[in-house]
Amino acid sequence: MITELIKKEKKIAVIGLGYVGLPIALEFAKKYSVIGFDINSKRVDMLKHKIDPSNELTKEDFDHTDIIFTDSLDELGKACFYIVAVPTPIDEHNTPNLKPLLSASNSVGKVLKKGDYVVFESTVYPGCTEEDCLPVLENLSGLKLNTDFFLGYSPERINPGDREHTLTKIKKVVSGSTTNALKVIAEVYASIITAGIHQASSIKVAEAAKIIENTQRDINIALMNELSLIFNKMNINTYDVLEASGTKWNFLKFYPGLVGGHCIGVDPYYLTYKAQEIGYHSKVILAGRQVNDSMGAYIAKEIIKHIISIDRSLKQSNVLVMGATFKENVTDIRNSKVADIINELKSFSVNVDVVDPKASSDELLHEYGFSLIAVPDKKYDAVIVAVNHSEYYNLTEAYFKEITAPNALLADVKGIYRNKFRSLQYWSL
Fold first, then answer.
1. SS3 5
2. Residue 75 burial (C-beta neighbours within 10 Å; 0-12, 13-18, 19+)
3. Contact at 8 Å (CB) between 188 and 2?
4. Whole-model pTM above 0.90?
5. Could you report the per-residue pLDDT of 181-207, keeping only the tens digit for each?
6. What structural domains does the chain harbor?
7. What is the largest CA-CA distance in the chain?
8. Residue 211: CA atoms inside 13 Å, Cβ hemisphere, count?
9. How far apart are CA 204 and CA 360, in angstroms?
10. Backbone Cα Rg of the chain
11. Reading across the β-sheet that carries 351-355, which strands appear in turn?
12. Who is most buried in 185, 296, 312, 409, counting CB within 10 A?
């Protein structure tokens, strides 16, 4: 397989060209002939013009690559090594939504040939690749696993906005449906991953390894958030406590905050869904999710309490929210918990303005029902720095005093201005 790929006698296809799929496709395209497939024709057209809709990659990242972008199944069928990297979201009931994954499996199943490999990278619960995706591939292709084609799972580890831990610098976990399939899949990925390859003992092990990476982070952040709720009642700054605790060599440095996005705030629900399906009701994981999902409303209520304390009418009060993306220095608004803050404030009839140097106002309006203003244009009773974009780090106390009314509160969610300002009323998690 690897020899034929090197000679470009065979092609690699990547299905799903978002945050995960596009970097993979372009990295492989530096060495091999690659087909980048996406059902979104608008996205495909942008990629043909070297424009990354996610704003993570530059035009230069497309240079010196052998890749075609397409939404055509005829083109997709020219590949022999398929990598599926589509989103795996949850619905409004926190239940896994496998529609994108099964749709991608459907597309691959229609073009699958004898000798082909299919590797899934989308985050799923253990068993999903073999129990949900494999039947679609077999039914549509008429082929049999390990007789006609081979299956693998290699969890993605892309971290949006992270310029240090990029694709090739993160150790890659791979798995395969047979010993030889694992060897082939490992060899293909090893040709682009400089950090090395870990060969998991089974597809289920690789799936489980991925899902607990984010579940572990979610639970640890939930602990920090719960501590911040407790310390706030004691008038103790949580970040001061964590700074002191962090002096011990084995203290784990997690911090409180909003947990949104398409990974940490979503993946644990895949695990608890599968656990419930096999008869176990999660306690710790769901408790952590409950804490983290409540933080937006909690922050908003702290602002409400402040407005009431200064005898300001809620209906006449103005609050500025700075940052609307799910994390700092990205354009991604998926599952942004900032929306929870805004919705809670508006439920009390507070007037809310939102600014963000990264986010799209149109996307926010479509997804959450609010848009951005160009610049702050009022005297605000509270300013919430909800996302610590790099543009906010150098803002001065004078800047905030210029846009705030007397007795205003600066709510610094991530504590980036801690111990820097003296005359403003200050609060953080």
1. helix
2. middle
3. yes
4. yes
5. 999 999 999 999 999 999 999 999 999
6. 2-211 (3.40.50.720), 235-427 (3.40.50.720)
7. 74
8. 27
9. 38
10. 24
11. 351-355, 318-322, 380-385, 404-412, 425-427
12. 185
User: Which tens digit of pLDDT belongs to each residue from 366-410?
Assistant: 999 999 999 999 999 999 999 999 999 999 999 999 999 999 999
Helices 99-111 and 134-141: crossing angle, nearest 10°?
A: 30
Catalytically annotated residues: 263
Determine how many CB atoms are found less than 10 A away from the CB of residue 239: 21
Nearest alpha carbon to residue 259 among 215, 303, 209, 194: 215
Task: Name the residue with tokens 């009701």.
Answer: 281
Gap between the Cα atoms of 412 and 247, Å rounded: 23
What tokens were used for 39? Answer: 């059902």
Here the tokens at position 337 are: 């918990």
> Residues 6 or more apart from 399 whose CB is under 8 A from it?
none
- From the number of C-beta atoms within 10 Å of its C-beta (0-12, 13-18, 19+), residue 174 rates as buried
| Rounded distance between C-alpha atoms, residue 114 and residue 285, angstroms | 42
d(CA 180, CA 3): 15
